[in-house]
Structure formats: C-alpha cells, structure tokens
Amino acid sequence: MPSEIRKSIIRENLASFPVAGIPAEQNVMEALLLLRNYEEGHRQAVEGEWDLPKVGARNFNQLHE
User: Fold this and answer.
1) CA-closest candidate to residue 37, choices 61, 25, 13, 54
2) Which among 34, 50, 51, 53 is least surrounded, fewest beta carbons within 10 Å?
3) Average confidence score pLDDT of the chain
4) At CB < 8 A and 24+ separation, what contacts does 31-37 make?
5) Strand pairing partners for 22?
6) Nearest CA to 33 among 13, 57, 17, 7?
7) Alpha carbon distance 28, 24 (integer Å)
C-alpha cells in the first residue's frame, strides 16, 4: 500500500480488515471510489433526481480504461 494512503488511513482513523481472498488495499480503494461519487449522489438526492448511471459513470470509465 502506498505510504500516502497509509498515512491518510491513520490520520482519519479508518479501519480496514482483510477478508478471505480480498486484500485490505482493495477495501480501501472501494471506499475511495464510493467517496468520489458522494458529491454527485448527494446533489441528485437533494434535487429529487436519481440517475444511478450518472453517479457511477466516472468510476466505471476509470476502472475500464
């Protein structure tokens, strides 16, 4: 795990526990991907809109480049 991610985890007091077959780094990256979508999802919820593909489109594109 890169040191800057490790420092952020410690600073923010986050916990990540390994699950059989899934490394802790994957858990951290999944959490970070969810947080990247938070702003758009929150905006849509406040405005009464819900376009799930639009919320997750940015991450899908990054994961499949």
Assistant:
1) 54
2) 53
3) 74
4) 33/59
5) 19
6) 57
7) 6
Quote the CA–CA distance of 40 and 49 in Å, as a whole number: 10
- Residue 29's nearest CA partner among 48, 47, 6 is 6
pLDDT of 8-21, one tens digit each?
Answer: 777 777 776 667 77
Specify the pLDDT at position 12.
77
d(CA 31, CA 9): 11
Whole-number Å distance between alpha carbons of 36 and 31: 9
Instruction: Residue 12: count other Cβ atoms within 10 Å of its Cβ.
Output: 7
